[in-house]
Design a protein that fits this description.
GO terms for molecular function: ATP binding; ATP hydrolysis activity. Part of the ABC transporter FtsEX involved in cellular division. Important for assembly or stability of the septal ring. Belongs to the ABC transporter superfamily. This is Cell division ATP-binding protein FtsE. The protein folds into two domains: about 10-100 and about 175-255, Rossmann fold (3-Layer(aba) Sandwich), CATH 3.40.50.300; about 265-355, ACT domain (Alpha-Beta Plaits, 2-Layer Sandwich), CATH 3.30.70.260. It is about 35% helix and about 30% strand. The chain contains 13 helices and 14 strands. It has a six-stranded mixed β-sheet with strand order 6-7-8-3-9-10, with helices on both faces. Strands 2-1-4-5 form a four-stranded antiparallel β-sheet, covered by helices on one side. Strands 12-13-11-14 form a four-stranded antiparallel β-sheet. It is elongated, with a radius of gyration of 24 Å. The chain binds adenosine-5'-triphosphate. The site of adenosine-5'-triphosphate has 12 residues, from strand 2 and helix 2.
Length: about 350
């Protein structure tokens, strides 16, 4: 049987890496005075997982609706697999919509149909025979780890299982793109991790291209290759996930990251003063291979030592991304030497203030 999936595979995948599945150029969609989408240019490359993150009202839903042709941009271009969709009629859009599989926050399963019927439904629309549909549904349920549930009804499933059915259904017709719209927002952390792991697995196994819409940086960190940050209808920052985590340039990205990046503990922050009394507190950001060994080196370079107040090193896409807070004794040239040492090793250092009493 030929596979309905876009195939992954060594060299072939490497060559296709930069091929665009979706390309938006200068897309605008205004509602009265509200620029819901305000000049968005964004490309989703074949085989990648692109995370699109933004706060409520940033324009994510409008962008999705433009992508599947439910909303027409005021201007700009949207290409799916190289084909311009903005001028197409409803009828012309139908086959293109089927190139995009979608999964949703609330799963959107049909409660009166069994799991296998839900999964097979898109194939009915494609005109597949019952036998072929059920065989494909069985294959997909196996892929998402739900082989034993084919005859169950959605009401008998957990949230995580329902989303697995949603994923199987979205993949049924062999889409070019899987669009995940807040697909884990209704799930607990453990189930979220399992579903994200499954998406990552399918991406690796099948080379499936995924556009992941979310308001949670945690989700982006777990599985995305690249991230684009949308704010007030504009893409304000875009890049490899590790790079944006290591060096968020905009206030909105910093704010979206604030919940999951180490920050100076409140009780220390409350005691910070600007006058040069007591220990100097430094905020240090560093990405790259040196992050893990930097502190050992700093220890050797500073006669008076230092205090690790908070923070650590995490690994994103095989890159180490470090963020920590140090207390340096004020004596002699310790703080200046610490800053010079850290900057020499590529760290971004911020002098946050002094903590009186910590001498
Ligand atoms: N049909 C509409 N009519 C008028 N304004 C709209 C319409 N759809 C969206 N908007 C406005 O466009 C902006 C972007 O909305 P959108 O729903 O795309 O944001 P979002 O990022 O998806 O938010 P959420 O995460 O809350 O769903 C908001 O200011 C919203 O009020």
């Amino acid at each position: 049987m030929t596979s309905p999936f876009p195939q992954a595979g060594g060299a072939e995948q490497g060559e296709n890496r930069r091929e665009a599945v979706v390309r938006l150029s200068g897309v605008h969609r205004h509602f009265g005075d509200t620029p819901a989408i305000d000049g968005v240019s964004l490309t989703v490359h074949k085989g990648e997982i692109l995370g699109l993150i933004g706060r409520s009202g940033a324009g994510k839903s409008t962008l999705i609706r433009c992508l599947n042709g439910l909303e027409r941009p005021d201007r700009g271009s949207i290409k799916i697999e190289g084909r311009e969709i903005t001028g197409l009629s409803e009828e012309q859009l139908q086959p293109l919509r089927r190139r995009i599989g979608m999964i949703f926050q609330h799963f959107n399963l049909l409660s009166a149909k069994t799991v296998e019927e839900n999964v097979a439904l898109p194939l009915k629309i494609e005109g597949w025979s019952t036998e072929k549909r059920l065989a494909r549904a069985a294959e997909l349920l196996d892929l998402v780890g739900l082989s034993g549930k084919a005859r169950s009804y959605p009401s008998a499933l957990s949230g995580g299982q329902k989303q697995r059915v949603g994923i199987a259904r979205a993949l049924a017709a062999g889409p070019a793109l899987l669009l995940s719209d807040e697909a884990t927002s209704a799930l607990d952390p453990e189930t979220t991790a399992a579903i994200l792991e499954l998406l990552k697995d399918i991406n690796a196994k099948l080379g499936l291209t995924i556009l992941l819409i979310t308001h949670e940086m945690e989700v982006i960190r777990s599985i995305a290759d690249r991230v684009a940050v949308i704010d007030a209808g504009r893409i304000v920052e875009e890049g490899p996930v590790w790079s944006v985590f290591a060096n968020p340039r905009t206030a909105i990205t910093q704010s979206l990251l604030s919940g999951i990046r180490p920050h100076l503990p409140q009780h220390v922050a409350a005691r910070l003063v600007s006058e040069p009394v007591g220990e100097v507190v430094l905020g240090v950001d560093l990405s790259g291979p040196d992050a893990g060994v930097l502190l050992a080196g700093l220890s050797g370079a500073l006669a008076g030592g230092f205090r690790l107040i908070h923070g650590g090193v995490e690994h994103i896409q095989q890159q180490s991304v470090a963020r920590f807070f140090l207390g340096i004794p004020p004596a002699s040239d310790g703080p200046a030497r610490a800053v010079a040492y850290l900057e020499r090793h590529g760290a971004k250092v911020e002098v946050l203030g002094h903590v009186p009493g910590h001498d």
